[in-house]
Amino acid sequence: MQILTISTIFAGNNLFRLLNGLVVTIEISLISIILGTILGVILGSLWSAAGTLIKPIFKAYLEIFRVVPTIPLLFLFYYIFPRNLNINLSAMQVSILVFSLWFAAELSDIVRGAIQSISKSQRENAYSIGLTTLQTYRYVLIPQSVPNILPAFINLSSRIIKTTSILLLISVTDVITVGQQIIEANAQDTAVPLLIYGFIALLYFLINYLLSHFSRRLERKYRKYE
C-alpha cells in the first residue's frame, strides 16, 4: 500500500505537473521580489528624505499592506477592481501586482530605517565633495545600508515564496493547486494527501534553504568590506 501511494507522484505526468507548478511559484515570487525591490528602494529613499507633509502618504501605503491580509487584497485586485475599472488582468498578473506592492511596502520601511541610521556626517561629506542628492543616495547611503537591509530582505523574500500557497484561491496553477488536483483525483487513497503535501513542503524547504544559504554568502562578502 505504501509503495502504491508513493508511486502516485510518478504516475502519469504528476511529477512533471508538480514541477511545472513549482516553476510558476518561483516565477511569480522572483518577478514580485525584483519589482518590489526596485519600488521599495525608491520609496524608502524618498521616505527618508520626505518632508513632514508627505510622510503620512508613505505611512498610509505601508499600513494598508501591513494590516490588510493578503487574501482580501488578492480578491480586491482580481474580482473587484477589474470589474469596476474595466481592466482585464490574469490571475498571474494580479498575483505579481499584489505581491510586488506588498513587498515594496515592507521593504520601503526597512530601507528608510537603514538609511536614517547612517551617520549624518556621511551625507554632509558627500555634499561637500560636490555630489548631488541622487548621487549621494546611489553611491553613499544605499550601498552602506545594504548590510542592514539584507537579513530583512531575505526574510521578506522567504515570506513571499511561502505566501504563494494561497494563490489557488484565484485559480493560479501553482504547485499547491496542482497538488490539490492530484489529491482529488486519488481521493480513494487517504495516504495521498500526506504524500503530496509532504513532497510540496520539501520543495518549499529546498527553495528557502537555497535562499538562506545565498544570503549567508552575501553577508560574509559584505563583512569583508566593512
UniProtKB/TrEMBL annotation:
Signal peptide (from-to): none
Domain of life according to the entry: Bacteria
Transit peptide keyword on record: no
TM region positions: 22-48, 60-81, 166-183, 195-214
GO biological process: amino acid transport
Record InterPro entries: AA_ABC_transptr_permease_3TM, ArtM/GltK/GlnP/TcyL/YhdX-like, MetI-like, MetI-like_sf
One Gene Ontology molecular-function label: transmembrane transporter activity
GO CC annotations, alphabetized: ATP-binding cassette (ABC) transporter complex
Keywords: Cell membrane, Membrane, Transmembrane, Transmembrane helix, Transport
Keyword Cytoplasm: no
Main localization of the protein described in the UniProt heading: membrane
Membrane topology per record: Multi-pass membrane protein
Subcellular location: Cell membrane
Pfam family, one: BPD_transp_1
SUPFAM superfamilies, A to Z: MetI-like
PANTHER family, per the entry: ABC TRANSPORTER MEMBRANE-SPANNING PERMEASE-GLUTAMINE TRANSPORT (PTHR30614:SF36), MEMBRANE COMPONENT OF AMINO ACID ABC TRANSPORTER (PTHR30614)
Family: Belongs to the binding-protein-dependent transport system permease family.
Protein name in UniProt: ABC transporter permease subunit
Organism of provenance: Leuconostoc mesenteroides
Lineage of source species: Bacteria, Bacillati, Bacillota, Bacilli, Lactobacillales
